[in-house]
TrEMBL record, chains A, B:
Pfam families assigned: LacI (PF00356), Peripla_BP_3 (PF13377)
Location of the HTH lacI-type domain: 6-60
Domain of life of the organism encoding this protein: Bacteria
Protein name: LacI family DNA-binding transcriptional regulator
Alphabetically ordered keywords of this record: DNA-binding, Repressor, Transcription, Transcription regulation
Organism, as annotated: Brytella acorum
């Protein structure tokens, strides 16, 4: 037995018909007699023949494949988002051409690959980091959908969480819990969503005069030049970065009573440092808020209050954009869709009694 | 501006050459004058043209696409394995056609889709549950590689962890730690890897007479008919199932001093139940061993001793099979490869002093 897949030529030979008859037998709308179709289908079944989509792709230019670009599946949020995107695309009759890229620098190379397979659209969970990459995406001349990215352009639509409002909501919770030393644990500088969350959090804190610089100065050790670096910790969206940032803060004898983290992975790391390194109990000594609602945040060791990005809504929005973009005569789309996150309250903010300021 | 991608016809028109010249300009081995090639490449750059792979797929029957079948990306082990498979395939010039299936029942439908795109091979992280599915895979007439599956057949190769030996190793650790009430937390019955791990664990426990039925009988409450259901807990590979199984055991006043879990997710759940529900400290009161070495097992809240499946070795083995299968004149492969897991010792088994029996 040969290794090559069975082709329509093999089926035609066995059925004693032309190759074109095989092709017509597998096209519901084609003209072919019922007897002829039955003969072809019987031969196809015998040979385990499956019709190829490749000729149709060549004729129509439509592959029904969507390029999905991912990086960092070690963050359960992205793994779950990819799973939901794949399920939704498959349910709509699309296939997923998965492209893994380490960072935005290699995105350009990935785009060439995707274009050569004539994907119908591109969905990227990777933020577009530069104007050049955005232009390369636009130049593909197919719909592109970016999650949590700030670049919009011709053919490019973005779908983001309402990061700024969620940041303000986190500040409101700090206020209601009577937090005096709030700490913000940031994602990497290139992460636009993290910057937005910080913006909303800081604006709302300042509005409500929650930051008490005199108290912070008092709490600081002498080798710390200003309170600002304390209020703001830098992470890189990983568990380890959250653990290390909080451990370093505790080593400087600063004991925060409120922590807002740009994502749940860092929040889990920071909570472990608070407990193991600082001897601080959550929520009794410090309240913690994350972002993403990854499964681990619900684990009993963390029980983390967080913002659920509602991935199902993000994915629904992406499917709506695709449907509109593929309508006959549709123009290039450049939508900007914001999906409101849902606050998930768990034990990590259950400070009682609340001391409203 | 139209929405359709730029084609070789557009490039030929702008360059003032034939479509065949455009095609030759993009084939390194084709005969074309340097001047003509430069003219085509300039026009292609102007139009942002990217050559299509589709005609080559049609002519050669080779798509350079590999169908990768996944389910349950909420288990970080599978998310990480997918990431490593994607990276390796891309590095070898392949593209990943991702297919998400909920269970083996929908695998057959997925196979038809994959065949219609003329994928060159199939890699599945999903265990093949039935002989019928194995036969459907064989009938595709392309190489298929299955992780942790027990079915082998024509065109089907399997790559598994040395589950039985690892189970025996877990028993050895229990013995060295002086465990008297060992508990096995199983994955779902359809999980062949879980059955193998149990087999190795139980065989080695029996060999070393570690199970002390008299002591277990003594520890049981009266409404428990036999010690057997206690020694063996049933989970479904999720965190929640591990938590619930252990909580139910503790509710029956059974306090294990050693726990081997078929995967890390269940181990994390069981550890949270041991601490929060049973007030048992790990490793002082109970030692815990998992399987998979997911990132969460290394988190400070767990610090879990586990078996690392060495995904990079599993993936390397898959790439070797693909390379051999695609050699000219290669016969259908049916390999069975076993990769030895690496024991990762962490605090969850750091019982001191060890009481060797």
């Amino acid at each position: 037995m040969t290794r090559r897949p069975v082709t329509s030529v093999d089926v035609a030979r066995l059925a004693g018909v032309s190759q074109s008859a095989v092709s017509r037998a597998f096209s519901p709308e084609a003209s072919i007699s019922p007897a002829m179709r039955a003969r072809v289908l019987e031969a196809a079944a015998t040979l385990n023949y499956r019709p190829s989509r490749i000729p149709a792709i060549m004729l129509s230019g439509r592959s029904l494949m969507i390029g999905v670009i991912v990086g960092g599946l070690s963050n359960p949020f992205y793994a779950s988002a990819l799973e939901q995107v794949a399920v939704s695309l498959q349910a709509s009759g699309f296939q997923v051409l998965l492209v893994h890229v380490d960072d935005a620098l290699t995105l350009d190379a990935a785009l060439n690959q995707l274009a050569s397979y004539r994907v119908d659209a591109v969905i990227t969970a990777l933020a577009i980091g530069t104007r050049d990459t955005a232009e390369a995406l636009s130049a593909l001349n197919i719909p592109a959908i970016c999650f949590n990215s700030r670049f919009v352009g011709r053919n490019i639509s973005t779908i983001t969480s309402n990061n700024r409002q969620s940041g303000a909501m986190a500040a409101k919770i700090m206020r209601e819990c009577g937090v005096r030393f709030p700490v913000w644990l940031a994602g990497p500088a290139r992460n636009a969503a993290s910057r937005e969350r910080r913006h909303g959090f800081f604006d709302a804190l300042t509005d409500h005069a929650l930051i008490d610089h005199a108290l912070i100065d008092h709490a600081l050790t002498s080798d710390t030049p200003s309170p600002h670096p304390i209020l703001e910790l830098q992470g890189n969206d990983t568990y380890e970065s959250g653990f290390n940032a909080m451990r370093d803060l505790l080593d400087r004898n600063f004991r925060p009573d409120g922590l807002f983290c740009s994502n749940d992975l860092m929040a889990c790391g920071a909570m472990d440092a608070l407990r193991d390194h600082g001897g601080l109990a959550c929520p009794k000594d410090v309240i913690v808020i994350g972002y993403d609602n990854i499964p681990q945040g619900a684990w009993h060791a963390y029980d983390l209050t967080t913002f659920d990005q509602r991935t199902e809504k993000l994915v629904d929005a992406a499917m709506d954009i695709l449907n509109d973009a593929f309508r006959p005569g549709a123009k290039a789309l450049s939508r900007k869709i914001v999906v409101a996150a849902a606050l998930v309250v768990r034990r990590s903010t259950a400070k009682a009694p609340p001391q409203v300021r």
